[in-house]
Each structure stands twice: as C-alpha cells, then as structure tokens.
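One thing: can you check what follows?
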Amino acid sequence: MKNNSLIIMIAVVFAVTIAVALIIRVIFLDKYTEEKVPKEVITAASEEVAEENTKEPEDIISEDVKEDYAGAENAVVELVERTTIEGNGEFETVYDRYIVSDVNFTEKTDVTKDYHEALANSEGEIGDGIEISFREAFDMSYTGLDGWKLYEKLIKQCGFSTDFNDVTFDEESHDLTGQNLYVYNGKNDVIDKLLWGETYDEILDSKVCYQLTENEKMPEYFSATVSYKYHEQVITKSRYLSVSIVSGKEG
C-alpha cells in the first residue's frame, strides 16, 4: 500500500513539474515575442492577412447570375489580340485581331466584324470593320447555346480557365489603377495559344487574369500577356476577351 502511495505522489509531482515548465515557457515566449516584435507590428500583419483573405473571391458566379445570363436576349463579344515589338530604339504595336460581335439569341442572328485592318489603315481611329462569320471569328458556333453557355464556351475556346476561385488578388495593380484584377494560379492554355508558331530565345514574363466588377460577382473581362526575347527584340503578345450580356429578365 505504501509503495502505491509513493508511486502516486511521484506521478503527481512529475505532472505538476511539467505543467509549471510549460507555463514558464509560454510566458517566456510571449515576453520574447513582445520584445522582438512590437504589438502594433503583429496587429498590422494580422489585419493585412485578414484584408487579403477578404479579397480572395469565393463562388464568383452565383446561380442567380447564371440564370440571368441563360435568359439573355443579346451578347456583345469583344476579342482583341495585339503584338508589341521593342528593340533597336523602336516601338511598334500591331493589332492581330480586333473582333466585335453582337449576337441576338431571340432572332438567332449575329453581326460580327473584324476591325484590325481598319485600325492599321486609319492612324489609330477605328474605321469600318470587315463583316465576317461568328465561326470564322471564334472558331465555334453559338447555335443551340444560351447566354451563359456561350459565355462559358467562349472563355474555354479562347484558352482561359473557368476555375475562377484558383486566383490571387493583384494588390499592385489595385494600388496603381484601382482595378480589381485576379491572377490565375494554375496553367491557362491561352499562353500556349499566343505563342503558337512563334520563335523565341526565352520567355521573360506571362500573366493571365480577369477583372471583377465591383457591384456584381462576375468577371467582366479576361486578359493574358506573354513577353519573350528574340535576338535583340522584346516581343509582347496579348489577348483580351469581354462578353457582355443583356438580360432577358424584366424589372
């Protein structure tokens, strides 16, 4: 019986010793942290993390917005591609494509024009575009598609991801321009599409993102840029896609 009591006492003392040691360690670490890192710095860092997290988009497109787009009467699609060449003290920008298409879902008709040649021949002013077919412009058809399905298919067709949540808020652009840009974290096919058939020595930079509207959870446009070096020139290719929907809902 005495042996059991002794064992119990030893166990209690051991447990109390560990508890006291842990308390002392916690107090020491708290004091060390306060001395090394001022409280205001810790608070500011926590607020920055909280603010950044609030800017990470969640469920960008709601079911209500999808329904709104599905019932659309019209869609206006803009697709712009351009190439900028820098080197030997010269700078040149060429529009490879500048397409605007107005699709009427009710009539199942469209008016699609390519303005890139009109831009090239009018010293920066947009002249009369050349009317082309929707399929020729986007390599797809809108037949059988509603506004939402067209929106989604165009995004994929142009090489942008429809995973709108795997992105990071672009703080730098927001500070400079006030834009709400979200940069894709994963791979987008649009970069490969822009580089298709191009010859280069090295890739310098690339960025794929979308602009989020302030009043509505809906990307209003998508953009991609890739810069590469070829001999003494730095070439930047870009693609811009916008799909604006006119709702068919009343009110």
